[in-house]
Amino acid sequence: MKTLDDLLGEGVSGRRVFVRADLNVPFDKANPGVISDDGRARAVLPTLIALRDAGARVIVASHLGRPKGAPDPAFTLAPVATRLGELLGSAVVFASDTVGEDAQAKVGALADGEVLLLENLRFNKGETSKDDAERGAFADQLAKFADFYVDDAFGAVHRKHASVYDVPARLPHYAGGLVVKEVEVLRKVSETPENPYVVVLGGSKVSDKLAVIQALLPKVDKLLVGGGMCFTFLKAQGHEVGKSLLEAEMISTCASLLEQADGRIVLPVDVVAATAFSADADHAVYDISEIPADRLGLDIGPKSTELFASAIAGAKTVFWNGPMGVFELAPFAAGTRGVAEAITKIDGFSVVGGGDSAAAVRTLGLDETAFGHISTGGGASLEYLEGKTLPGVAALEK
Q1: Catalytic residue list contains 40
Q2: Is the pLDDT confidence value at 354 over 80?
Q3: What is the mean pLDDT of residues 222-240?
Q4: Rounded to an integer, what distance in angstroms lies between the CA atom of residue 25 and that of residue 329?
Q5: Cβ(158)–Cβ(391) below 8 Å
């Protein structure tokens, strides 16, 4: 597939370039309109700066959250436009709609080197429609804005959406540096990982990670399981898990995976369990065979953290997706912190698989440069490792 470097080599001065970015940033729940983690905005900066400095008229588009195909003030990208301007060091023009009168007027008024951000793409139902004609009609409108298309939204390439899949079919299209880097990294850990290869998985549900477990299990030396999903595995081993998160319908599947793994799946040996899902709840460390019936596990315990860190220590390749506990609450952050710190110390290549794992790195104040690569796409990363075709990448390769 052609890349941003190819486009810059062709020359973009005075030309309009449509950039699909992933600006789906989280906001501070206590302070509406305040971005709590601008990592995704910072990730697309190199592409935007390169195009701006080359004299392009840059039209940026992104989704935010899950509005239902119509304008919703709760999901406006207006605060993101402000933050993006701060990061770029120059104001970003904001269009109050996606393809309406305001967007059309502001696209038409763009000068060389200016950057415009369209309102949330998902305010138009054509963006996510499963109907090819409806999605295509919206793509037609977006494509009319530009001469070229650049996709630098790795976090969205697993979606068959108008701005990801259909617009590149209508314009000369190029992969941004972020997308190129993500694909290179994931190809490395899925096809040619250096052993020992350790995968660390967390998060809430086994069902969300089942396909990636099945795809990676034959390739890994150790697969460490923490987070809420570990309790279904522990139940499959015969342990009682109290009020911890449990997918009863997945117990037999977990038992089968443990048998197939022949000791390569490593589970916690102790957990931090509390009386309620709250930072103020009474909590203590329990051996996995002694979890009280009235408590729920919210983090792996200190012995488990040491066990996981020991398994990570000798690895040459580590892929991590999913926190070990509810890291947003201080009493239940130690497991995620301990595992993350162990990953930073390996003499090898480490990948943080986006999503909550990337958020944990920033929330816990860890050194981002200590990891080999921090992905911007949790879902896209997992689907790539599962062996699925990513619609956005396929569109760029055509």
Answers
A1: yes
A2: no
A3: 96
A4: 20
A5: yes
126, 155, 322, 379: which is the annotated catalytic residue? 379
What pLDDT is attached to residue 358? 86
Name the pLDDT band for 51 (thresholds 50, 70, 90).
very high
User: Catalytic residue at 335?
Assistant: no
Contacts of 251 (CB under 8 A, 6+ apart): 232, 235, 236
> Which tokens hold the place of 305?
């953290």
Whether 100 is a known active-site residue: answer no
150's CB contacts (< 8 A; 6+ apart) are 4, 7, 17, 18, 19, 20, 47, 51, 173, 174, 175, 176
Rg (CA), the chain: 22
Which residue is listed with tokens 């220590």?
313
Judge whether 147 is annotated as a binding position.
Answer: no
Residue 264 structure tokens: 């390569």
Q: Alpha-carbon distance 219 to 240, whole Å? A: 31
Q: What is this structure's pTM? A: 0.87
Cis geometry, peptide bond prior to residue 196 (ω within 30 degrees of 0)? yes
CA diameter of the chain: 68
- Which residue out of 355, 372, 377, 378 is catalytically annotated? 355
Nearest-10 Cα torsion for 188, 194, 197, 203: -20
Per-residue model confidence as pLDDT tens digits over 127-160: 999 999 999 999 999 999 999 999 999 999 999 9
**Binding site annotation covers 301?**
no
| Contacts with 299 (C-beta within 8 Å, 6 or more apart), sequence order | 271, 272, 324, 325, 326, 327, 331, 332, 333, 334, 335, 336
Cβ neighbour number for residue 100 with a 10 Å cutoff = 16
